[in-house]
Design goal:
This protein is of the alpha/beta class. Among the domains are: 243 residues, Aldehyde Dehydrogenase, Chain A, domain 1 (3-Layer(aba) Sandwich); 172 residues, Aldehyde Dehydrogenase, Chain A, domain 2 (3-Layer(aba) Sandwich), CATH 3.40.309.10; 98 residues, 2-Layer Sandwich (GMP Synthetase, Chain A, domain 3), CATH 3.30.300. It is built from 28 helices and 36 strands. A seven-stranded mixed beta sheet has the order 2-1-6-5-4-7-8, with helices on both faces. α4 crosses α9 and α27 crosses α28. The longest helix is centred in the middle third of the chain and has 17 residues. It is elongated, with a radius of gyration of 34 Å. The protein starts with 5 loop residues before the first helix and ends with a strand.
């Protein structure tokens, strides 16, 4: 359990049990008297809860934790809930709920129904416009659950929570307390209390009209399950303007063409659909239509199908007295009509099944319990015959050729059907499937929009100006690259759809796996970060100059990002022919460059004359490395570049982690707080650093399918930047302070590569690239600082600057523990990653 210990939750649940209340109200079990009193305060409760938006990730994390518990036979949560199962149900019902509540299922549902896993955030659907849209909760959803489907009530509440609503649910007076206790367990997995604040479950009879009125009066939507009389009874309490969401009874049927109905496999598949759940599901076939007008086909098929039903094992559950009376009456009437030549009945001697052939095509409801009508209906008359019953139609199971299936599906939709399946799969479904022709989450939501002006050009998400994102706190042990590589080997093939290799600049290339859904989420996040950094998709003409090939992800990722932004792109990729690249930039009027600093630096300097004469490069967005302040001044002063900014901060395995806004400088970035949480831990101990201190950056990713990347020690150093950013965003800020690999032990001292770069810039005015190389001599170690010859570097002056500005280095040299050398080389001679082209800051050759 993640939110609290199992012992704490069990103690809490036992306390709830002792209250002997039948109602669950915002985290507590209460009795009738208290529930009646609180119902009067329902409008105020809703207003208070809606004042704090509900993060979708809060719902997903709690549901996934509960799903894990429900599917574990030894988990105490499952053990507690088994006690509340309805009569006739066993623990497989909890397994079913566990599947529906898993992160995989719910994220797929969110994507299908609301377009993404954070549908409530006001993002720009078109990055070229300052228009923001989101799905907002309707407010209060009143759920009137049926008494014969134990999973419906809790899953309906979860749908309401995914849409961000406050939810009040009525269960039947005779129901067990499974729903109440299940939702109490769900709320226990959320330490924020946000879920408990949005859930009320009452158990009472529908005859208690005053409670129904108090439930429905302040509701913005009322969801009700049942037949016409049940819906009408609830509709009487629904106020004007309130959305009534009907999940009523529906009729389904099978449709067979001539080339299919003679096949034994067709009859067996039809029998599967009839016998599964004894026709109690709305998607069970009650009528079998044949594509014919010949009554002889109908009678012959009915007789053959009766033989198939006769061979099936008897039903376990028997009809009750009322159901048996309906079965007997329907069969008796059909037998009487045999004398008129209208029908023919084939039935089991013990009344356990019946097939009633009828020459009239009109849709007739079945009394269920393996009772099936067989009727003629040529396809040309399908719409006219069925459309009068369009309000009640749901599923048609078709047995036909592929061409006929496509044609018949269109005709069925025109008649009012909402769902077409193969025969034998009428009761099967798929994740995210619409129900009765609509998506539930859209019925529990509103589409809202904000039109803004040019002041919001760099604001990618309007919510960032209003409030911080609050995700569940990270938990569990720290993980590193080796642990993540081991986790990758455990990712299922269904979740490993995209393979990337890291550049290998800090070691052997590491493999990272993504689902396409996760990749899409990350690319949208990075696109929002690029807008914040000052990228203009309406005006900028961008050359994508990241490295490509070898499963390296930068070029592909930024291609995807620009695609989502709708920006003009020249997908050139980094290459050795700088002259050809410069020519392409000039010919196609590129004004924005994406790429690695080391590559861009070489390109600009080698083709300086042509590019300066062109004078069209206005923006540079870089990633993977860092441009020093001196290098950025050179880009501005020498090449006339106006914007030099980080394109993103991230890693191959975690994706985009941070972004710069127009007010960010140096290594300061905002956290992608809708995707990750960040910790900054002490260099030596696994504890948080003091505010403002530098430590190890640790990230937990919340939006990954099939793998959990929690508390990942990424290998970078940083410090938190306190206070709200001048750009107005509430997203946390941090400043990058190098990599843990940049700090090396030489002799008895720890030396930092970034310190060398800073001293070279500040004391010697050096603005080129810099690399430290460590080797071992016979008596001591040697540190060589490599600098670019083309940058006008003076090796002796730089050596003096390093000794003067770095006391620890000076001590190591003075004590003859270390030799220091500065070497000027061609920029092309500096060691770089062969995959990414990234400069290797520290090259340790000591063995």
């Amino acid at each position: 359990m993640t939110a609290r210990t199992e012992k704490e939750t069990e103690k809490e649940t036992q306390t709830m049990d002792r209250t002997a209340g039948h109602h669950y109200w915002q985290g507590a079990f209460i009795g009738d008297e208290e529930a009646g009193r609180r119902l009067a305060t329902l409008p105020a409760l809703v207003e208070e809860a809606l004042a704090s938006p509900l993060e979708t990730e809060t719902v997903l994390a709690a549901c996934d934790a509960l799903a894990t518990a429900l599917r574990d036979p030894a988990h105490p949560v499952r053990d507690r809930l088994v006690r509340h199962l309805p009569e006739g149900e066993d623990a497989t019902l909890l397994d079913e709920l566990g599947t529906h509540l898993s992160r995989t299922e719910l994220t797929r549902k969110l994507r299908r129904e609301l377009g993404g896993t954070a549908p409530g955030r006001l993002n720009r659907p078109d990055a070229r416009e300052t228009v923001y849209e989101a799905w907002a909760p309707v407010g209060l959803v009143a759920h009137i659950a049926p008494g014969n489907a134990a999973t419906v009530a809790p899953l309906s509440i979860v749908e309401g929570l995914l849409a961000g609503n406050v939810n009040i649910l009525k269960t039947s007076g005779g129901d067990t307390l499974l729903t109440q206790h299940l939702l109490a367990e769900l709320a226990a997995f959320d330490t924020s209390g946000a879920l408990a604040a949005r859930v009320v479950v009452l158990r009472f009879s529908s005859s208690r009209k005053e409670w129904l009125e108090k439930m429905c009066a302040p509701a913005d939507a009322v969801a009700v399950w049942g037949g016409e009389s049940a819906v009408e009874g609830i509709a009487a309490h629904v106020p004007p303007g309130c959305r009534l969401v009907e999940w009523g009874h529906r009729i389904s049927f099978a449709y067979l063409t001539r080339d299919a109905w003679d096949e034994s496999a067709t009859l067996e598949a039809l029998a599967d659909d009839v016998c599964l759940h004894e026709q109690q599901a709305c998607s069970s076939p009650q009528v079998v239509y044949l594509d014919t007008e010949d009554e002889r086909d109908v009678f012959a098929f009915a007789e053959r199908f009766a033989e198939v039903l006769a061979a099936r094992p008897a039903a376990v559950e028997k009809p009750d007295i009322a159901e048996q009376a309906e079965l007997t009456t329907t069969e008796l009437v059909a037998r009487l009509e045999e004398h008129l030549g209208l029908t023919r009945v084939f039935a089991a001697p013990d009344g356990s099944w019946r097939v009633m052939a009828d020459t009239r095509p009109a849709l007739t409801a079945s009394p269920l319990h393996r009772s099936v009508w067989v009727k003629p209906l040529p396809r040309g008359k399908l719409i006219a015959t069925l459309r009068p019953m369009r309000r009640y139609l749901q599923t048609v199971g078709i047995a036909a050729s592929p061409t006929d299936t496509a044609e018949l599906a269109r005709a069925a939709f025109a008649a009012g059907v909402t769902r077409v399946t193969p025969l034998g799969a009428m009761l099967a479904g798929y994740s995210g499937e619409p129900h009765d022709g609509v998506y539930a989450l859209q019925r529990y939501s509103r589409r809202v929009a904000v039109q803004a002006d040019a002041r919001f050009a760099t604001t990618a998400c309007l919510d960032d100006l209003a409030r911080p994102v609050l995700l569940p706190p990270p938990s569990g042990p720290l993980t590193g690259k080796e642990e993540v590589q081991e986790l990758n080997r455990q990712v299922s093939r269904a979740d490993a759809e995209l393979y990337f290799h890291s550049g290998g600049s800090t070691g052997a290339p590491a493999l990272s796996l993504f689902s396409y859904d996760d990749y899409d989420t990350q690319m949208h996040a990075a696109a929002r970060g690029l807008l914040a950094a000052g990228y203009d998709p309406m005006a900028d003409r961008t050359a994508n100059l990241f490295y490509c090939g070898g499963m390296y992800g930068s070029f592909i990722s930024f291609f995807s990002i620009l695609e989502r932004l709708g920006g003009v792109q020249l997908p050139l990729a980094a290459g050795p022919d700088h002259r050809a690249t410069a020519r392409a930039l000039i010919d196609h009027r590129a004004d924005t460059l994406f790429g690695m600093p080391s590559y861009l630096w070489q390109l600009l300097h080698e083709e300086a004359d042509a590019l300066r004469a062109y004078g069209g490069i206005r923006k540079v967005f870089y990633g993977g490395e860092h441009f020093t302040d001196a290098q950025q001044r050179t880009l501005r002063d020498t090449f006339g570049i106006e914007v030099v900014r980080s394109i993103t901060y991230g890693s191959t395995d975690l994706g985009p982690l941070g972004y710069q806004c127009a007010r960010s400088t140096g290594g300061v970035h905002h956290l992608h707080a809708d995707l990750h949480t960040m910790e900054i831990l002490d260099l030596e101990a696994d504890r948080p650093v003091a505010p403002g201190e530098t430590g190890r950056l640790v990230f937990t990713t919340h939006a990954r399918r099939g793998q959990h990347l929690g508390r990942y020690v990424i290998g970078d150093l940083g410090r938190a930047v306190e206070g709200r950013c001048p750009c107005g965003s509430h997203a946390p800020r941090f400043e990058l302070r190098g990599r843990t690999g940049d700090v090396v032990r030489v002799a008895t001292y720890f030396l930092n590569h970034r310190r060398f770069a800073a001293i070279a810039q500040e004391r010697a005015g050096y603005s080129g690239e810099l690399q430290t190389v460590l080797t071992r001599l016979d008596a001591r170690e040697r540190l060589t600082v490599r600098v670019e010859r083309a940058g006008g570097a003076d090796p002796e002056r730089l050596r003096e600057a390093f000794l003067a500005g770095y006391p620890e280095l000076r001590s190591a040299v003075t004590e003859r523990l270390l030799d220091l050398a500065v070497e000027a080389v061609d920029g092309a001679k500096l060691d770089r990653s062969p995959t990414s082209g990234k400069l290797r800051a520290v090259v340790d050759l000591r063995g």
